[in-house]
Amino acid sequence: MTAILPEDRGFTLGDGLFETVLADRGRLVLWAEHMARLAAGCVALGLPAPDPDDCEARTRKALAAAGLSDARAALRLSWSAGPGGRGLDRPDVMQPHLVVTASPATASGRPVSLATVGLRRNPTSPVARLKTLAYLDNVLARREARAAGADDALMLNTDGHIACAAAANIFWIEADRIFTPALACGVLAGTVRAALMDELEIAEVAAPREALETAEAVFLTNSLVGVQPVERIDGRAVLVGHPLVNYLGAIAAGL
Questions:
Q1: Which tens digits make up the pLDDT trace of 146-167?
Q2: Where are any strands of DSSP class E within the chain?
């Protein structure tokens, strides 16, 4: 097990980033895109970026150690700012720390239910668009949704616009057009989100919660589930099996 120092800023302050990558029998799905997003996040936070070759070597080692080199696995790469003294200021010379873990990831395309939660995303904060180690808002949003009997959270931003699920991007279909919240709504630039937008015309919008009331279909995306249909929002049934969702699911499965 990799030791984390008690004074590590990732541990004490959430000062760092992480990526969740799907490994499919040794193939690192959208690896270049994950590394590019990690590097962009480091620029935004003022952190040195990790070496992609070292990340891949550590990733392969973690897969092998977990006995998952030939399986479907979820990889987590945590990149911390490293040790620092007491207080908020970073040391003049940072020593970032990388931790990579691998866990089994069973494929599940089952539809999920969402519950609108009270916790709001702040679109004015740059960290709302980054995958930082400070993920407590997402943890609490998922907890609130589960307490309401749903699988995941529907998060709005402080302007009342649709943002995301606790750990996924959200899309909806209206009149055979596909919509998703714009990044400016406080949304993470998901790797599967970007891949789907390269394939089809998808409108990035700032839309109120009511936009989902008339949607023909709603679905989530992230690196582990690919495309996941939504079957219920706040107790209201949503159509499952829309041809566009099935088509996008096939694209995501082939990434």
A1: 999 999 999 999 999 999 999 9
A2: 16-24, 27-28, 72-80, 97-104, 112-116, 152-156, 162-164, 169-174, 177-181, 202-205, 217-222, 226-233, 236-237
